[in-house]
Amino acid sequence: MPGRSFRFARIAGIPVGISPWWLLIVALITWSLGASYFPEEVPGLAAPAAYALGLGSALLLFASILAHEFGHAIVARRHGIEVEEIDLWLLGGVAQMRGEATRPEDELRYALAGPAVSAVIAACFVALLAALPQSSPPVLTALVRYEAYVNGAILVFNLLPAFPLDGGRVLRSLLWRRSREKQRATRTAASVGRVFGYVMIALGLIAFLDNDATGLWLCLVGGFLVVASGAQARASELTGTFTGVRASALMSREAVSIPGDMPLEEAIERYLRPFHYHAFPVVDERGRAIGILRVDELEAHLSRHETAALRSTRVGRFADLDEALLIEEDADVGALLSTPAFARVGRAVVLDGKRHPVGLLSITDVEAALRFRTSDDGSRLGMRR
Ligand SMILES: [Zn+2]
Q: Which of 328, 374, 319 is nearest to 349 (CA)?
Protein backbone atom coordinates (compact mmCIF):
# COMPACT_ATOMS: atom_id res chain seq x y z
CA MET A 1 0.00 0.00 0.00
CA PRO A 2 1.55 3.32 -0.95
CA GLY A 3 2.62 5.69 1.82
CA ARG A 4 2.89 4.77 5.45
CA SER A 5 -0.19 5.57 7.49
CA PHE A 6 -0.14 7.36 10.82
CA ARG A 7 -2.45 6.36 13.63
CA PHE A 8 -4.76 9.07 14.83
CA ALA A 9 -7.33 7.40 17.07
CA ARG A 10 -8.41 4.19 18.74
CA ILE A 11 -12.10 3.35 18.48
CA ALA A 12 -13.62 0.30 20.20
CA GLY A 13 -10.07 -0.90 20.86
CA ILE A 14 -9.14 -0.80 17.16
CA PRO A 15 -6.42 1.65 16.04
CA VAL A 16 -7.41 3.87 13.14
CA GLY A 17 -4.72 5.05 10.74
CA ILE A 18 -4.68 7.56 7.91
CA SER A 19 -2.45 7.32 4.88
CA PRO A 20 -1.01 10.63 3.61
CA TRP A 21 -2.81 9.80 0.33
CA TRP A 22 -6.13 10.12 2.08
CA LEU A 23 -5.41 13.78 2.88
CA LEU A 24 -4.88 14.32 -0.84
CA ILE A 25 -8.29 12.79 -1.52
CA VAL A 26 -9.97 14.99 1.12
CA ALA A 27 -8.35 18.02 -0.56
CA LEU A 28 -9.53 16.88 -4.02
CA ILE A 29 -13.11 16.27 -2.85
CA THR A 30 -13.19 19.63 -1.01
CA TRP A 31 -11.93 21.35 -4.14
CA SER A 32 -14.33 19.68 -6.57
CA LEU A 33 -17.37 20.22 -4.31
CA GLY A 34 -16.38 23.80 -3.44
CA ALA A 35 -15.54 24.77 -7.02
CA SER A 36 -18.46 23.19 -8.86
CA TYR A 37 -21.06 21.11 -6.96
CA PHE A 38 -22.15 23.60 -4.28
CA PRO A 39 -21.99 26.76 -6.46
CA GLU A 40 -24.15 24.97 -9.08
CA GLU A 41 -26.65 23.59 -6.55
CA VAL A 42 -26.93 26.82 -4.56
CA PRO A 43 -26.75 29.85 -6.90
CA GLY A 44 -25.27 32.93 -5.23
CA LEU A 45 -23.30 30.99 -2.62
CA ALA A 46 -20.07 32.77 -1.56
CA ALA A 47 -16.86 30.90 -2.45
CA PRO A 48 -15.54 30.51 1.15
CA ALA A 49 -18.90 29.03 2.21
CA ALA A 50 -18.85 26.64 -0.77
CA TYR A 51 -15.36 25.36 0.14
CA ALA A 52 -16.28 25.08 3.83
CA LEU A 53 -19.31 22.98 2.82
CA GLY A 54 -17.04 20.95 0.54
CA LEU A 55 -14.69 20.20 3.43
CA GLY A 56 -17.63 19.37 5.72
CA SER A 57 -19.03 16.94 3.12
CA ALA A 58 -15.62 15.31 2.66
CA LEU A 59 -15.30 14.79 6.44
CA LEU A 60 -18.82 13.32 6.59
CA LEU A 61 -17.84 10.96 3.78
CA PHE A 62 -14.77 10.03 5.80
CA ALA A 63 -16.99 9.19 8.79
CA SER A 64 -19.23 7.05 6.52
CA ILE A 65 -16.25 5.06 5.25
CA LEU A 66 -15.00 4.57 8.81
CA ALA A 67 -18.45 3.26 9.79
CA HIS A 68 -18.36 0.86 6.81
CA GLU A 69 -14.97 -0.50 7.92
CA PHE A 70 -16.12 -0.82 11.52
CA GLY A 71 -19.04 -2.88 10.21
CA HIS A 72 -16.50 -5.36 8.82
CA ALA A 73 -14.24 -5.18 11.86
CA ILE A 74 -16.89 -5.74 14.52
CA VAL A 75 -18.45 -8.72 12.75
CA ALA A 76 -15.00 -10.20 12.02
CA ARG A 77 -14.03 -9.85 15.67
CA ARG A 78 -17.22 -11.60 16.72
CA HIS A 79 -16.11 -14.55 14.58
CA GLY A 80 -12.74 -14.73 16.27
CA ILE A 81 -10.73 -12.84 13.65
CA GLU A 82 -8.60 -10.19 15.30
CA VAL A 83 -8.57 -6.77 13.66
CA GLU A 84 -5.15 -5.16 13.73
CA GLU A 85 -5.97 -1.74 12.36
CA ILE A 86 -8.36 0.24 10.16
CA ASP A 87 -6.60 2.28 7.52
CA LEU A 88 -7.96 5.06 5.38
CA TRP A 89 -6.11 5.49 2.13
CA LEU A 90 -6.45 6.47 -1.49
CA LEU A 91 -9.50 4.42 -2.42
CA GLY A 92 -11.39 4.42 0.85
CA GLY A 93 -10.82 2.23 3.85
CA VAL A 94 -9.37 -1.15 4.62
CA ALA A 95 -9.71 -3.24 7.79
CA GLN A 96 -6.48 -5.15 8.40
CA MET A 97 -7.37 -8.57 9.76
CA ARG A 98 -4.99 -10.82 11.60
CA GLY A 99 -5.80 -14.19 10.06
CA GLU A 100 -8.59 -15.24 7.77
CA ALA A 101 -12.01 -16.81 8.13
CA THR A 102 -11.92 -20.57 8.55
CA ARG A 103 -15.55 -21.06 7.49
CA PRO A 104 -17.19 -19.60 4.37
CA GLU A 105 -20.27 -18.58 6.40
CA ASP A 106 -18.07 -16.31 8.58
CA GLU A 107 -16.45 -14.67 5.59
CA LEU A 108 -19.86 -14.11 3.98
CA ARG A 109 -21.08 -12.36 7.13
CA TYR A 110 -18.13 -10.05 7.58
CA ALA A 111 -17.90 -9.26 3.87
CA LEU A 112 -21.55 -8.16 3.89
CA ALA A 113 -21.32 -6.22 7.16
CA GLY A 114 -19.56 -3.19 5.62
CA PRO A 115 -21.99 -2.78 2.69
CA ALA A 116 -24.88 -3.27 5.14
CA VAL A 117 -23.65 -0.24 7.14
CA SER A 118 -23.30 1.81 3.93
CA ALA A 119 -26.81 0.79 2.88
CA VAL A 120 -28.24 1.95 6.22
CA ILE A 121 -26.37 5.29 6.02
CA ALA A 122 -27.49 5.86 2.41
CA ALA A 123 -31.10 5.00 3.36
CA CYS A 124 -30.97 7.46 6.28
CA PHE A 125 -29.80 10.30 4.00
CA VAL A 126 -32.43 9.43 1.39
CA ALA A 127 -35.13 9.46 4.08
CA LEU A 128 -33.78 12.76 5.42
CA LEU A 129 -33.85 14.24 1.92
CA ALA A 130 -37.48 13.17 1.50
CA ALA A 131 -38.41 14.56 4.92
CA LEU A 132 -36.82 17.99 4.39
CA PRO A 133 -39.54 20.64 3.98
CA GLN A 134 -39.64 22.81 0.84
CA SER A 135 -38.62 25.80 2.93
CA SER A 136 -35.36 24.27 4.18
CA PRO A 137 -32.14 26.04 3.16
CA PRO A 138 -30.81 24.89 -0.24
CA VAL A 139 -27.30 24.26 1.18
CA LEU A 140 -28.74 21.66 3.55
CA THR A 141 -30.62 19.92 0.74
CA ALA A 142 -27.47 19.92 -1.42
CA LEU A 143 -25.35 18.48 1.41
CA VAL A 144 -27.84 15.72 2.25
CA ARG A 145 -28.27 14.83 -1.45
CA TYR A 146 -24.48 14.54 -1.86
CA GLU A 147 -24.11 12.24 1.16
CA ALA A 148 -27.01 10.03 -0.01
CA TYR A 149 -25.35 9.81 -3.42
CA VAL A 150 -21.80 8.98 -2.23
CA ASN A 151 -22.95 6.39 0.28
CA GLY A 152 -25.00 4.76 -2.46
CA ALA A 153 -21.91 4.84 -4.69
CA ILE A 154 -19.75 3.27 -1.96
CA LEU A 155 -22.37 0.53 -1.58
CA VAL A 156 -22.57 -0.27 -5.30
CA PHE A 157 -18.82 -0.08 -5.88
CA ASN A 158 -17.99 -2.37 -2.96
CA LEU A 159 -20.57 -4.92 -4.04
CA LEU A 160 -18.97 -5.41 -7.48
CA PRO A 161 -17.99 -9.10 -7.53
CA ALA A 162 -14.35 -8.10 -7.99
CA PHE A 163 -12.12 -9.72 -5.41
CA PRO A 164 -10.71 -8.28 -3.10
CA LEU A 165 -13.67 -5.87 -2.97
CA ASP A 166 -16.49 -6.89 -0.62
CA GLY A 167 -18.60 -8.28 -3.48
CA GLY A 168 -15.63 -10.41 -4.54
CA ARG A 169 -15.33 -11.76 -1.00
CA VAL A 170 -19.01 -12.62 -1.08
CA LEU A 171 -18.42 -14.45 -4.38
CA ARG A 172 -15.44 -16.31 -2.90
CA SER A 173 -17.36 -17.38 0.20
CA LEU A 174 -20.24 -18.68 -1.94
CA LEU A 175 -17.87 -20.64 -4.23
CA TRP A 176 -16.02 -21.87 -1.16
CA ARG A 177 -19.24 -22.99 0.50
CA ARG A 178 -20.22 -24.93 -2.59
CA SER A 179 -16.88 -26.60 -3.38
CA ARG A 180 -15.45 -26.68 0.20
CA GLU A 181 -12.12 -25.74 -1.41
CA LYS A 182 -10.95 -22.33 -0.29
CA GLN A 183 -7.86 -22.09 -2.52
CA ARG A 184 -9.80 -22.88 -5.66
CA ALA A 185 -12.56 -20.45 -4.71
CA THR A 186 -9.91 -17.76 -4.11
CA ARG A 187 -8.30 -18.40 -7.51
CA THR A 188 -11.64 -18.14 -9.30
CA ALA A 189 -12.71 -14.99 -7.42
CA ALA A 190 -9.30 -13.40 -8.06
CA SER A 191 -9.59 -14.14 -11.82
CA VAL A 192 -13.00 -12.47 -11.89
CA GLY A 193 -11.49 -9.51 -9.97
CA ARG A 194 -8.71 -9.22 -12.53
CA VAL A 195 -11.19 -9.20 -15.43
CA PHE A 196 -13.16 -6.41 -13.70
CA GLY A 197 -9.91 -4.50 -13.26
CA TYR A 198 -9.02 -4.71 -16.95
CA VAL A 199 -12.57 -3.74 -17.98
CA MET A 200 -12.35 -0.66 -15.71
CA ILE A 201 -8.98 0.32 -17.19
CA ALA A 202 -10.41 0.01 -20.72
CA LEU A 203 -13.55 2.02 -19.86
CA GLY A 204 -11.39 4.61 -18.09
CA LEU A 205 -9.14 5.01 -21.14
CA ILE A 206 -12.17 5.39 -23.44
CA ALA A 207 -13.63 8.04 -21.11
CA PHE A 208 -10.28 9.83 -20.87
CA LEU A 209 -9.83 9.92 -24.65
CA ASP A 210 -13.33 11.36 -24.75
CA ASN A 211 -12.05 14.27 -22.61
CA ASP A 212 -13.55 13.00 -19.36
CA ALA A 213 -10.94 13.37 -16.60
CA THR A 214 -12.79 10.92 -14.31
CA GLY A 215 -11.56 8.23 -16.71
CA LEU A 216 -8.14 8.48 -15.04
CA TRP A 217 -9.75 7.68 -11.73
CA LEU A 218 -11.39 4.58 -13.20
CA CYS A 219 -8.00 3.49 -14.61
CA LEU A 220 -6.44 3.90 -11.18
CA VAL A 221 -9.15 1.80 -9.51
CA GLY A 222 -8.90 -0.83 -12.26
CA GLY A 223 -5.12 -0.99 -11.87
CA PHE A 224 -5.51 -1.40 -8.14
CA LEU A 225 -7.93 -4.31 -8.67
CA VAL A 226 -5.58 -6.09 -11.08
CA VAL A 227 -2.61 -5.81 -8.70
CA ALA A 228 -4.55 -6.52 -5.50
CA SER A 229 -6.43 -9.55 -6.82
CA GLY A 230 -3.17 -11.14 -7.97
CA ALA A 231 -1.45 -10.43 -4.65
CA GLN A 232 -4.39 -11.78 -2.65
CA ALA A 233 -4.50 -14.96 -4.71
CA ARG A 234 -0.78 -15.58 -4.14
CA ALA A 235 -1.01 -14.77 -0.43
CA SER A 236 -3.97 -17.07 0.01
CA GLU A 237 -2.16 -19.86 -1.82
CA LEU A 238 0.85 -19.45 0.49
CA THR A 239 -1.33 -19.31 3.61
CA GLY A 240 -3.14 -22.47 2.53
CA THR A 241 0.11 -24.32 1.83
CA PHE A 242 1.56 -23.56 5.26
CA THR A 243 -1.53 -23.92 7.42
CA GLY A 244 -0.78 -26.59 9.99
CA VAL A 245 3.00 -26.19 9.68
CA ARG A 246 4.79 -25.22 12.93
CA ALA A 247 7.18 -22.26 13.05
CA SER A 248 9.95 -24.44 14.53
CA ALA A 249 9.88 -26.68 11.45
CA LEU A 250 10.88 -23.86 9.10
CA MET A 251 12.87 -21.39 11.24
CA SER A 252 16.61 -20.76 10.97
CA ARG A 253 18.21 -21.78 14.26
CA GLU A 254 21.39 -19.73 14.05
CA ALA A 255 19.83 -16.56 15.48
CA VAL A 256 22.16 -14.42 17.60
CA SER A 257 20.49 -12.25 20.25
CA ILE A 258 21.61 -8.74 21.25
CA PRO A 259 20.96 -7.34 24.76
CA GLY A 260 18.58 -4.40 24.40
CA ASP A 261 20.54 -2.20 26.83
CA MET A 262 23.83 -2.49 24.95
CA PRO A 263 25.03 0.78 23.35
CA LEU A 264 24.61 0.70 19.58
CA GLU A 265 28.34 1.31 18.97
CA GLU A 266 29.26 -1.81 20.94
CA ALA A 267 26.48 -3.88 19.34
CA ILE A 268 27.77 -2.99 15.88
CA GLU A 269 31.32 -4.11 16.83
CA ARG A 270 30.28 -7.28 18.66
CA TYR A 271 27.30 -8.47 16.63
CA LEU A 272 26.54 -6.64 13.40
CA ARG A 273 30.08 -6.73 11.97
CA PRO A 274 31.03 -10.36 12.76
CA PHE A 275 27.59 -11.89 12.03
CA HIS A 276 26.22 -11.02 8.61
CA TYR A 277 22.56 -11.54 9.47
CA HIS A 278 19.68 -9.43 8.25
CA ALA A 279 18.02 -9.39 11.66
CA PHE A 280 18.77 -10.07 15.33
CA PRO A 281 16.42 -10.84 18.22
CA VAL A 282 16.74 -8.18 20.94
CA VAL A 283 16.48 -9.43 24.54
CA ASP A 284 16.07 -7.96 28.02
CA GLU A 285 18.49 -8.52 30.93
CA ARG A 286 16.98 -11.96 31.59
CA GLY A 287 17.37 -13.10 28.00
CA ARG A 288 13.70 -12.76 27.12
CA ALA A 289 12.87 -11.45 23.65
CA ILE A 290 11.54 -7.89 23.48
CA GLY A 291 11.81 -7.19 19.76
CA ILE A 292 13.67 -7.61 16.52
CA LEU A 293 16.50 -5.48 15.11
CA ARG A 294 16.44 -5.16 11.32
CA VAL A 295 19.85 -4.31 9.91
CA ASP A 296 18.55 -2.59 6.75
CA GLU A 297 16.23 -0.36 8.82
CA LEU A 298 19.07 0.53 11.17
CA GLU A 299 21.40 1.36 8.28
CA ALA A 300 18.76 3.59 6.70
CA HIS A 301 18.22 5.32 10.02
CA LEU A 302 21.94 5.91 10.63
CA SER A 303 22.54 7.19 7.10
CA ARG A 304 19.85 9.79 7.67
CA HIS A 305 20.93 11.06 11.06
CA GLU A 306 24.16 9.63 12.35
CA THR A 307 25.47 11.45 15.40
CA ALA A 308 27.80 10.47 18.20
CA ALA A 309 24.86 10.57 20.61
CA LEU A 310 22.94 8.09 18.47
CA ARG A 311 25.83 5.61 18.57
CA SER A 312 25.78 5.54 22.37
CA THR A 313 22.00 5.02 22.38
CA ARG A 314 20.82 1.60 23.54
CA VAL A 315 20.05 -0.97 20.83
CA GLY A 316 16.54 -1.54 22.19
CA ARG A 317 15.52 1.88 20.89
CA PHE A 318 16.10 0.77 17.31
CA ALA A 319 14.28 -2.54 17.63
CA ASP A 320 10.80 -3.21 16.23
CA LEU A 321 8.82 -4.00 19.38
CA ASP A 322 5.64 -5.27 17.69
CA GLU A 323 4.37 -8.18 19.83
CA ALA A 324 3.02 -9.90 16.70
CA LEU A 325 6.64 -10.49 15.61
CA LEU A 326 7.37 -12.65 18.68
CA ILE A 327 5.91 -16.10 18.09
CA GLU A 328 5.98 -19.48 19.79
CA GLU A 329 7.62 -22.60 18.40
CA ASP A 330 4.30 -24.24 17.62
CA ALA A 331 2.81 -21.09 16.04
CA ASP A 332 1.03 -21.83 12.77
CA VAL A 333 3.05 -20.56 9.79
CA GLY A 334 -0.10 -20.21 7.64
CA ALA A 335 -1.66 -17.90 10.23
CA LEU A 336 1.59 -15.96 10.62
CA LEU A 337 1.80 -15.32 6.87
CA SER A 338 -1.55 -13.57 6.90
CA THR A 339 -0.64 -11.10 9.68
CA PRO A 340 0.00 -7.50 8.59
CA ALA A 341 3.03 -7.34 10.94
CA PHE A 342 4.78 -10.24 9.19
CA ALA A 343 3.84 -8.82 5.79
CA ARG A 344 5.49 -5.55 6.85
CA VAL A 345 8.70 -6.91 8.40
CA GLY A 346 9.09 -10.27 6.64
CA ARG A 347 10.49 -12.04 9.71
CA ALA A 348 9.61 -13.04 13.27
CA VAL A 349 11.46 -14.21 16.39
CA VAL A 350 10.62 -17.76 17.49
CA LEU A 351 10.53 -18.21 21.29
CA ASP A 352 10.66 -21.16 23.68
CA GLY A 353 8.36 -21.50 26.71
CA LYS A 354 10.47 -19.00 28.70
CA ARG A 355 10.34 -16.42 25.91
CA HIS A 356 14.00 -16.98 25.05
CA PRO A 357 14.72 -16.70 21.29
CA VAL A 358 15.42 -20.06 19.66
CA GLY A 359 15.40 -18.95 16.03
CA LEU A 360 14.22 -16.56 13.37
CA LEU A 361 11.58 -17.31 10.77
CA SER A 362 11.79 -15.16 7.65
CA ILE A 363 9.84 -15.05 4.42
CA THR A 364 13.03 -16.39 2.79
CA ASP A 365 12.76 -19.54 4.94
CA VAL A 366 9.15 -19.95 3.84
CA GLU A 367 10.03 -19.47 0.18
CA ALA A 368 12.89 -21.95 0.46
CA ALA A 369 10.53 -24.50 1.97
CA LEU A 370 8.14 -23.90 -0.90
CA ARG A 371 10.92 -24.41 -3.46
CA PHE A 372 12.26 -27.63 -1.98
CA ARG A 373 8.92 -29.05 -1.06
CA THR A 374 8.29 -32.51 -2.44
CA SER A 375 5.30 -32.96 -4.66
CA ASP A 376 3.11 -34.61 -2.03
CA ASP A 377 3.15 -33.01 1.41
CA GLY A 378 6.62 -31.66 2.01
CA SER A 379 7.48 -34.42 4.44
CA ARG A 380 11.05 -34.67 3.16
CA LEU A 381 11.79 -31.31 4.75
CA GLY A 382 10.28 -32.35 8.03
CA MET A 383 7.39 -29.91 7.71
CA ARG A 384 5.41 -31.43 10.51
CA ARG A 385 1.69 -30.96 10.18
ZN1 LIG B 1 -15.99 -3.05 2.68
A: 328
Distance between Cα 165 and ligand 1 center (Å): 7
Whether 69 is catalytic is yes
Among positive and negative, which fits the CA dihedral 305, 309, 312, 313? negative
pLDDT (tens digit per residue) in 5-64: 677 778 888 888 888 888 888 898 899 899 989 999 888 889 899 999 999 999 999 899
What residues pack around ion ligand 1 (CB closer than 5 A)?
114, 158, 166
Upstream peptide bond of 164 is cis (omega within 30 degrees of 0):
yes
Q: Walk across the sheet containing 289-294 and list its strands.
A: 258-259, 279-283, 289-294
Q: Compute the distance between CA of residue 239 and CA of residue 155 in angstroms, rounded to an integer.
A: 29
Give me ligand 1 centre to Cα 97, in Å.
Answer: 12
Q: What pTM did the predictor assign?
A: 0.70
The widest CA-to-CA distance across the chain, in whole angstroms, is 79
Superfamily (CATH H level) for 247-381: CBS-domain (3.10.580.10)
| Ligand 1 center–CA 70 separation, angstroms | 9
Distance 150 CA to ligand 1 centre (A): 14
- Rounded CA-CA distance 265/267 in Å is 6
pLDDT in tens, 291-340: 999 998 888 888 887 777 777 889 988 899 888 899 999 999 988 887 77
Catalytic residue selected from 69, 84, 85, 147: 69
